Amino acid sequence: MHFEYTVIEGDFVNAGSASSSVKKTLKQLNVSPAIVKRVVVALYEAEVNAIAHAYGGVVTADIESNQITMRVIDKGPGIPDIEWAMQEGNSTARPEVRDMGFGAGMGLPNIKKNVDQLNVQSTVGVGTTVEMIVNLC
Amino acid sequence: MTFYHALQVDENRCMGCSHCMTSCPTEAIRVRNGKAVIDEAKCIDCGNCFKACSFRAIYIKQDDFESIFGFKCRVALLPSVFLGQFPQDITVSRIYNILKELGFTHIFETDAATSIFTMAKNAYIAAHPDIKPLISSFCPAVVRLIQVRFPGLVENIMPIKAPIDIMAIYARRQLKKQMSLDDDEIGIFYITPCAAKIAAVKNPVGEDKSNVDGVINMDSLYNRVYKKIKEQGKNYQEIKLPIPQLSSDGVLTSLTNGERRLSNVPHSLSIDEIQNVTEFLEKVENDEIEDIDFLELRACDQSCPGGILTCDNRFLICERMFARARKVAERERNGIQTKELQVAEDADYLLSHSSVSEVKPRSMMSLDNDISKAMEKMNLMREIHKKLPQIDCGVCGAPTCEALAADVACGKASLKNCIFIQRNLATKGEINREEILKIMEEIWGKDIMEYLK
User: Fold this and answer.
1) Nearest residue to A24 (alpha-carbon basis) of B359, B402, B289, B361
2) Is the domain of B264 the same as that of B135?
């Protein structure tokens, strides 16, 4: 089952719409609340990342009976050093983004905590794809 | 698993107008054969349907008033919102006297348990710094809303007895002590402002059996009391009863902000009205809410004064309750009344009996218990949903196009229930007039369709 959502740069107001929709679907599929929570937390975080750091992008979610694969594909500056970005507290967020309460450098580490597999591919100047897989049972 | 419901449809009154269907926050209502049908598994007894009904076809089951006389000792467990129904020139002791004339032997105000309830909550908050936000267990409709729609948040609900249960335990213990009575000689009757409290008594969450023996609807007791007031007329001579006065905090508990003002955490919110509560819980569930320690959530606008069984305008009720609290607060300031708890002598016992076992999810959003079957149904539902007009007209007997799609996918309705689909099929000659009439009759009943023939 394939779902697709658009993320617009700087649109913090609508951050969370993709994760809300995925959440509703998972509830209808009788996925356990604890797993739904992990999916939602990770996807919300990734959504906000794309809104804050990139120039928008696309969120896709593919649900199979045993797992959900989510991809947040952005056109953006890219992450020069993924390993550095994976560490808590490291962030390249602009000051105005930090002023809104985002950009504490917890994004990727928090995603990692909540998913079973995390793959980050990034090319500087082109964009980043964050792939997150969560086992559903 | 069956769930008790206080809200019922009176088929003789129901016109199948569908107003209740569109007002239900859990989409628990459908129209079939011209009558509203409530899905018991999804209903949370919030009372929105009751408010939406112009035909008074939604009614609330209650215990027969005469059943109080099955007990030697007859306790009225009175929420402070009941006293807020009456104009201020009708005194508390006058109402107490009338309740005794009506047959109650003892009166306990539920909100006197506020102090214990607050202590238990504050202790729980202190012991669980890792769970944020913690949600009050005060409103039973909210507890049920979370079980049904937000199963991931059940662990945020504090497993603590609501004041009504704490007070019922206290009343029973006191009476047994004072009058050396057996358990079955004491009947405790709660005077309820809403349907959810009835469900909470008949079908408690996290407990096997409620401490309350019966429930009497506030509106029916109000009528009995008001009749007495009218009979007494203007010549009524006040007989002062020595009333154990409720603290000012107690008077205010059931109002919006009543719990929050007593919480000892830096960041808390109080939210009333079920749509507002739902909107906020969506955010909590998405983990979008940070740094809120405690949530006081109430299903009704203005909290308990907005309950469906109250008898006056909710804003007037609030103001009367504030007026009573101001009076009590002045007595407290002047030392005429202590702010100390009325239930102080039993505080330790009540505190140690204030918890309930964990609240379990009652997830009713799922299409099937088996995930692969649910996936099949979900695929089907998405296919069906695409074909529907997305205008949520409700003519199919379901509240939204999405709800119809889910019903069809689960085999509970036909796609042909949609009038747009019917039109489409008719233009292609794939459905005839008789078939359409039959479908519409099955939804809206024979009577309403009669004139079309």
Assistant:
1) B402
2) yes
Q: How far is B394 from chain A (nearest CA, A)?
A: 22
β-strand pairing of B58-60 with B7-9: antiparallel
Q: Which residues of B touch A29 (CB under 8 A)?
A: 366-367, 371, 374-375, 378
Residues B249 and B398 in one domain: no
Burial class (CB in 10 A: 0-12, 13-18, 19+), A67: middle
Contacts of B378 in chain A (CB under 8 A): 1, 25, 28-29
Residue B361 lies in a domain: no
- Selecting from B365, B369, B375 the residue whose C-beta is nearest the C-beta of A27 gives B365
* B154, B372, B378: residue with CB nearest A28: B378
Using pLDDT thresholds of 50, 70 and 90, give the confidence band for residue B71. very high
Does the interface ipTM go beyond 0.90? no
The confidence score (pLDDT) of residue B340 equals 59
Are B371 and A28 within 8 A, CB to CB?
A: no
Backbone angles phi, psi at B432, to 5 degrees: -105, 170
pLDDT band of A106, cuts 50, 70, 90:
low
Q: Is the dihedral of CA B47, B49, B50, B51 positive or negative?
A: positive
Q: Are residues B72 and B57 in the same domain?
A: no
In a domain, B362, yes or no: no
Mean pLDDT of A104-113: 79
Model confidence at B47: pLDDT above 60: yes
* Token pair belonging to B131: 């769970």
Pairwise pLDDT comparison (B345 vs A132), residue with the higher score:
A132
Its CATH class, for the domain covering A2-135, is alpha beta
Residue B162 in this model has a pLDDT that exceeds 70: yes
Q: Which of B23, B42, B61 lies at the terminal end of a domain, its last residue? A: B61
Distance from CA of A78 to the nearest CA of B (A): 25
Per-residue pLDDT tens for B239-264? 777 666 788 999 999 999 999 999 88
Average pLDDT over residues A15-34: 89
pLDDT of residue B302: 97
- The pTM of the full predicted model, rounded to 2 decimals, is 0.87
B289 or B2: which leads in pLDDT: B289
Residue B357 placed within a domain: no
Please answer yes or no on whether A27 and B374 come within 8 Å at the CB atom.
no
Q: Pick the residue of A4, A28, A48, A115 with the most B CBs within 10 A to test the interface with B by mutation.
A: A28
Task: Give chain A positions within 8 Å (CB) of B154.
Answer: 33
Quote the CA–CA distance of B66 and B61 in Å, as a whole number: 15
Residue A31, chain B, CB below 8 Å: the answer is yes
* Nearest CB neighbour to B371, from listed A15, A31, A44: A31
Contact A44 B287 (CB under 8 A): yes
Residue-wise pLDDT for A89-103, tens only, equals: 777 667 776 776 666
Calpha distance B272→B304 (Å, rounded): 10
- From chain B, pick out residues whose CB is under 8 angstroms from the CB of A24: 365
| Mean residue pLDDT across chain B | 90
Q: At what angle do helices B371-387 and B401-409 cross, to 10 degrees?
A: 130
